[in-house]
Amino acid sequence: MRRYASIMNLKMPIKRFITVSSTTWLKENGGREEIIPPVESESEIAPRQSALRRFSAMLGIELERQEPSFYASALAKPKEEKFVVKDRELDYTSAQRSQVAWQIMMRCRYDDHDKEKIGIRRLLNNQTYLAAYPLHEGRYDKDPPEGIDRLDRRILYLNWARAGTWYKKQPLWQVRKYFGDKIGLYFAWLGFYTEMLIPAAVVGLLCFLYGCLSLNSKDNIPSMEICNPKSAGNITLCPLCDKACQYQQLKDSCFFAKVTYLFDNPATVFFAIFMSFWATTFLELWKRRQAVIAWEWDLQFVEEDQEPRPEFETSVKTFRVNPVTGRREPFLTLWDRSRRVVASGSIVLFMVCIVMCAVVGTILYRLSAVAVLYRNGDAFMKRNAKILTSMSAAMINLIIIVLLTRFYHRLALWLTNLENPRTQTEFEDSFTFKIFVFEFMNFYSSLIYIAFFKGRFFVHPGDQHARSSEFLRLKGDVCDPAGCLSELCIQLAIIMVGKQGFNNFIELLLPKLENWWRKRSHMAKTDNKERPLRRWEEDYQLQDSGRLALFQEYLEMVLQYGFVTMFVAAFPLAPLFALLNNVAELRLDAYKMLTQARRSLAERVADIGAWYGILQGVTYTAVVSNAFVIAYTSDFIPRMVYKIGYSPTGSLEGYIQSSLSLFNTTDYTEGMGAERTRNASEPPVCWYRGYRNPPGSPDQYDLSAQYWHVFAARLAFVVIFEHIVFALTGIMAYAIPDVPVEVKTQIQRERLLAKEAKFDNKRRDLNRSASEGTPAPNTHPPVLPNDCTALHHQKVIIQNSVWDLS
To answer: What residues does the Anoctamin transmembrane domain cover (predicted)?
Structure first.
């Protein structure tokens, strides 16, 4: 066990020390440093913190086996005892022992005549064995008999994996002990992300409440103008489609105007800036938290075992001599690798194009559905045609997203196997990149279109080019006079909340159904059905999580992070819904891994891998996205331009009519305009959203001067917003160190203790050899102070001491 632990770089726990601070000081005691506890003892501080302690106890976890303290000092014992393994059960966790057993099976030869036939993975690949997995420890739903301590699985279920423990802290040390470092680090990241969502959810809720409270106040002049029959009654809007839609009054957009103000109010800009800083703070604080976890779990110098995958070894027929090991190994040539990558990338690009076609199809459905509802619907359908069309289009888009996701995940796995990466790390990185590129387009393409492109191609009513082809019908896809932000909010809410609810339902129900069917099939093949199942049989009936067990969990949370940060200006309640989902997601993932899936293979990782780089990319994209949403999707900039440069009173009175342009209905050609009825009279003019010259002017229907003023202000806002946010977030990232000072101090003290232990061990060997009268191994001349030769001898003694300790 110790030999393989040394090969795999499994470090034993080292007793840590309290950080040296103003309340902790050192004294000399016989030439040995000792740490003196703070002046105030815990019993003296406890009465002042009784309320805080009671609250912490409520949030804590009551475990039979408490987490070992890494901050307890034990300097009364010799230093080398801190590095000696004394208890196999305590110092080697069950996850570490299963990891060592797996490494032994990975290196075990099963054919004496063929040296390349080595390892359990190759036997699994050629289906000699059906499965290989570490066993769960006992039952999770029953206590053991009296006199027997509860096993870790039962303890974790009672204190971590139940829904009733949603408010308690996670026992991460116990999770790591049972599942290993990789899964423990995932739950540490998920718990940290969920905690960081609390301030974002509170601020977003306050911004939404501000919109609700000020909905009918004087600050909401545009909505009041739209909803006021006196001011909006004489404004007739041009039909949204030709020959099927009717002229409408501006007051018909009252509902959309109020919904838009709930999310597009003066607090929107503040919240967008806040979320940009929140995202940067989240990444920087996670780096610090990850550094602390890496130190506590001894993950700073984890070296991945980059062995070739069995699939790579069996499929590659070209070989080379490894320049490091000097051994013959399978090797893909540059031409073969490039050919595979190009083929895989072409298919990924084709799938992205399919997603874009699906988005265009959804847009065409929205245009056609509006026309059908106006033509064949009753009064209610005609009155609510826009909102019914937006909601149905969002639901159709969600269904397309789910179906394409299921299909593409299998396709991406096939493409990654086609590329045939050499190691498992390269395999996971390639698979991650393919999935995220596709999912980014799949989930965000419709939102990007509504936020940045919808209504931008519209020229004016009666445009002949809009009727030249079906594709150019997109030019007729215009926003409501109240703006596109309400539609973006509806689309984002349905996709985000619907996706999370559907995924949670699938994660909870699907494993139960699969396990039930697998158990039913197994019992049908068993002769003695009354015989109790053994542990390996019970675990075999559970779901196989596979080597990509955490991939779906990370992907779901990263996509949610994109919803929370990229379009949060349109939906301030997104952090709140994400927080509620994550509280349930954390316990659901724990329940699934502990009760519905086979125990995953313990793996050692130093960080969350490629996902951190993806989170950084999403964060930078979110700053740009929020800047464009405020500038181009919301009416914040046009209102400011009107208020400063065009309003005669310096307020927003008259803004709605200023944001609309006039069109002469006699300019409609054959087949265009509204459907004419017998008793209905066509108005001489109608209004549409845009900044264009009125009819009769020299450049009628061309862009007006106000359009260029608004355009310049929007562009200036985007540039200023991005530079200020990126500058301040850069300063924040520089000011927050990646590794806490306390951890650096602890690492330095550990190195000092390790160095002293080596010297103490060597000195003890020399004394023992002198007392026995035998020459000590690797004996060197006595070390003299201030001597270069002495420094050389010190270096040799340290090297030899490392071997002696081993």
So the answer is: 175-750
CB neighbour list of residue 134: distance below 8 Å, 6 or more residues apart? 98, 101, 102, 599, 601, 602
Instruction: Look at 174-178, 529-533, 691-695, 733-737 and tell me which has the smallest mean pLDDT.
Output: 529-533
CA distances from 700 to 358, 692, 693, 695, 804 (A): 36, 8, 5, 5, 92
User: pTM for the full model?
Assistant: 0.79
The CA distance from 510 to 514, in Å, is 6
Give the C-alpha separation, 315 to 333, whole Å.
13
In this structure, are residues 320 and 314 in contact, taking their beta carbons and an 8 Å threshold?
Answer: no
In this predicted structure, what is the pLDDT of residue 114? 73
The CA-atom distances, in angstroms, between 504 and each of 279, 466, 585, 595 are 25, 43, 7, 16
- State pLDDT tens for residues 482-526: 667 777 888 788 888 877 877 778 877 888 888 888 888 877 777
Residue 736 and residue 288: Cα distance in Å, rounded?
9
Secondary element (H or E) of residue 525: helix 485-525
Residue 330 pairs in a beta bridge with 319
DSSP state of 423: B
Distance of CA 761 to the CA centre of its chain: 47
Task: Return the exposure string of 773-788: e unless at least 16 CB atoms fall within 10 Å of the residue's CB, then b.
Answer: eeeeeeebeeeeeeee
Question: How many residues in the chain?
Answer: 806
Highest mean pLDDT pick, 198-202, 362-366, 566-570, 765-769: 198-202
Contact between residue 209 and residue 261 where contact means Cβ atoms under 8 Å apart: no
Confidence of residue 566 (pLDDT cuts 50, 70, 90): confident
The two three-digit tokens of residue 271, written as one number:
């919240």
- Counting Cβ atoms within 10 Å, is residue 580 exposed (0-12), middle (13-18) or buried (19+)? middle
At 437, the pLDDT band (50, 70, 90 cuts) reads confident
DSSP H helical segments within 60-147, as ranges?
88-91, 94-107, 120-125
Rounded to the nearest 10°, the torsion over CA 745, 749, 755, 756 is: 150
With b for 16 or more beta-carbon neighbours within 10 A and e for fewer, the 713-749 pattern comes to bbeebbeebbeebeeebeeeeeeeeebbeebeebeeb
* Rounded distance between C-alpha atoms, residue 542 and residue 531, angstroms: 19
List, in sequence order, every residue forming a beta bridge with 692; answer none if it has no partner. 703
Q: Which of left, alpha, beta for 274 (phi over 0: left; psi -120 to 50: alpha)?
A: alpha
Q: Which residue has the tokens 């069309």?
A: 389
What is the sign of the dihedral through the CA atoms of 584, 589, 592 and 595? negative
CA distances from 143 to 95, 146, 158, 277 (A): 22, 9, 10, 48
Evaluate whether 191 touches 213 at the Cβ level (below 8 Å): no
- Residues facing 703 on adjacent strands: 692
Q: Is the dihedral of CA 173, 175, 179, 185 positive or negative?
A: negative
Radius of gyration of the chain (CA): 34
Tens-place pLDDT, residues 728-769:
888 888 888 888 887 788 778 777 877 777 777 777 777 777
How far CA 50 is from CA of 44, 57, 480, 603, in Å, comes to 11, 10, 57, 40
CB atoms within 10 A of CB 642: 23
B/e letters for 373-390, b = 16+ CB within 10 Å, e = fewer, are bbeeeeeeebeebbbbbb
Cβ 656 vs Cβ 250: under 8 Å: yes
